[in-house]
Structure formats: C-alpha cells, structure tokens
Amino acid sequence: PDTSRDQQASMNATEAKKICVLYLVSRLQRHGPIFQLYNIVRYLDRKRFCPRVLTLSPEAPESLLADFVKIDVECDSLGLSRVAGMILGPGRIKRLLEERPVDLVHVFDYRSTLLCANHVMGVPRVVTCRQSYRHVFGPILGSIMMRSFLRACDECERVVAVSHSIRNLVENGIARQIDVIHNGIDLDRFKPVGEEEKRHLRSRLGLPPDRRVFLSVGFLSETKGVPTLIEAFLKGADGQSDVLVLLGDGPLREKCSRLAAGRSNIRMVGFVDNVENYLGAADVFVSASLTEGCPNAVMEAMACGLPVVLSDIPAHREILAFDERAGLVFTTKDAASLSLALTKSRGMNYSEQSSAALGIIKNHLNARKMSLKYQELYAELCG
C-alpha cells in the first residue's frame, strides 16, 4: 500500500509539471479548424503538455469527438445552445477552471474567442485567426462580427494568424503583435499513391481508368467559385478525355447541377468521409475560391502529390511561393482564364509538378511542424 501511494504521488507530481492546455471551441464538427486542432493535439509532446478540450455546444452527428478520445484527449462539454452559451457559459467556464485549473487557454472560433477574452482571466490566452468574417457573412453582419472578434483578440495575450494573408487582413484592427503559424497537413493520412493503387481507387469510385481527372473539394457557395469552375471546364475540357469531380454540398448545388446538366464527365458527389481516396484517384486539384485563410483542401491535395490549378488570391499565392513549379494560377472569377489554365496543365511536366507539390507540404506545411511551433509558443507564454 505504501508503494502504491508513493507511485500515485509520483504520477501526480509528474502531471503537475506539465503545461495544461485547454482548447475551447464551439464543438468538434468535421471542418477545417477542428482538423487543425486535432493535428496540433495529436503531435503534442505529452511529456511536456497535457491537453484538454471543452466544447460550448452539443456535438452534431458529424463530429470528430471519437477521434480525439482515441488519442487520449480529455473532452468535456457545456452542452449549451448558442444563446444559452453566451448567457450561462461565462459562469460555468469560471467554475470549471476553479475546480480544475489550467496553465493556458487556446481558442479557435468566434464564440469561444469572445467568451475567453471577456471571462477567462489569470492565464495566458492564445487565439488563432483563420478567416475574414466579412467574406463569409457579408459586408454588414461580417463587419460587425469582425470588429467584435478583433476587440476580443486584443484582450488575449497572443494572436496567431494561419497565413500571412490573414495577418495582413487583421493587423490594422489589432494593437498587439500577430504571429503566423501556417496550417499543417497530416502526412500519415494524406500521401501519394502508386499507379496500381490509383487504378484500384478509380475502379472503386466508378471513375474511368484512362481519363484525366480534375478534382475540387469544398462548400458549394459563391465564395468557392464553383460555377466559374464548371463553366471553365465546359469551355476548355475535352469531353472524351477529362473528368471533373466535385466533392461537397451547399446552397449552390442546384445551380451547379443545372450548369452541369447532361454532362456525364462532371460528377457531383456531395460530402464524403473518404476524401483521401478521391485525392488518390485524381490527377489535378482545382480551386476557384474567391477567398481563403490557409486552405486545407489545397494542401491535402498537394500532400497526395497532386499538381494544383488555383485562383489568384493571396492565400494561394502564399502556398505556391514555396515552389512555383507545383501549379498554375488563373485570374479569379474569370472562366476563360481558368479554362486556359486547365488546357495548359496538360502540357506541364507532371512528375516535376507532383514532386514540387509534395515537397511544399513535407518541408513547410505539415502537421508536425505546425504543432511544434504552437508548443514553442505555449512554453514561451508559460515561462
């Protein structure tokens, strides 16, 4: 019994030496910011850091909660709606932190940032900026949200942007320094496949074995530019040799379906949970987005060795600046320019483009590097 008590005391002392990081988010839904949170936590040095996740609202059916539990991350939830969270959330968060103190709080979204800035005191607070709310919610609501978000950022000890383009968007609204830590891709999940595996995947997914496959992944909305992509593909693609696959859903699905009507070489698949299989089956990735922060879909494609054709926006240029051989850029919202880029991609050195795309992720934008940079930040803030 004495030995057992000594062992438990030793374990408690070891835990006390670790930096306890609380990740405060709205919920663990399956989208870009939460995948990045998962990547940060997965590669944390557990000898130095103890991660905890607290969500504000109940989980939706499409949740990553089970994935966090599998990597031994303690997850709790306030279980509150949006309105109840703003009213009851502050008191409940305060009580939880009094019962189980943490060394640092890291927030990722609008609601958690406002709650953290106004109601979490006494520990360093880190907020990650991922997007411009004006681009997502429109000029009126988006501007109101952006102003309140930036005010909250100013209350936190450290502000991190996921790209230089996001930092440039928000730096005039924040008094304190903004760090840049790019999103990172998990190279264990997203990786190139061989020719035999590509043929096998195409057979499973019902894609032709001998045609060039363009792939686009994202929400079917105006900001993703999917109608422009369909129009450009219809103008410039060879119906006998090219196939366009669109993964995702959204408010423009009906419009996109009308644009693609009658064309068997345009496949609108909807949401899938095996996107890496489609990446393995594709030849070229296309993004016609009008705005991005640090686009996960583009980087996941590059991790799979896919050359990219990208709209000329700051976030895309920032990625290609690491190695311009990885892809082509076209004029944003210009179907003719995109059509020309699709045609031009046929004559490029595919092997060179593929190697350059993969090299960008391996050398600069992978999950391990991203997590390590956040760990260095946590250690700095906690002394």
Characterise this structure.
The chain has 383 residues and is α/β, with parallel strands linked by helices. 47% of the residues lie in helices and 16% in strands. The chain is built from 17 helices and 13 strands. The protein has helices at residues 2-17, 32-42, 65-70, 82-99, 110-119, 133-137, 139-155, 164-170, 195-205, 226-236, 253-259, 275-281, 296-303, 314-320, 335-345, 350-363, 367-381; strands spanning 19-25, 49-55, 74-77, 104-107, 125-129, 158-161, 178-180, 212-217, 242-247, 266-270, 284-287, 308-311, 327-330. The strands form two sheets. The chain has a seven-stranded parallel beta sheet with strand order 3-2-1-4-5-6-7, sandwiched between helices. The chain has a six-stranded parallel beta sheet with strand order 10-9-8-11-12-13, sandwiched between helices. The radius of gyration is 22 Å and the shape is globular. The chain starts with a helix and ends with a helix. The model has no long low-confidence stretch (mean pLDDT 92).
Q: State the total count of DSSP E strands.
A: 13
The fraction of residues in strands falls at 15-25%
Q: Distance between termini?
A: 37 Å
Could you spell the SSE succession in H and E letters?
HEHEHEHEHEHHEHEHEHEHEHEHEHEHHH
How does the helix and strand content classify structurally?
alpha/beta
- Globally, the shape reads globular
Arithmetic mean of pLDDT: 92
Strand order of the largest sheet: 3-2-1-4-5-6-7
Rg on CA atoms, Å: 22 Å
Helical segment count: 17
Largest sheet: 7 strands, parallel
- Uncertain segments: none
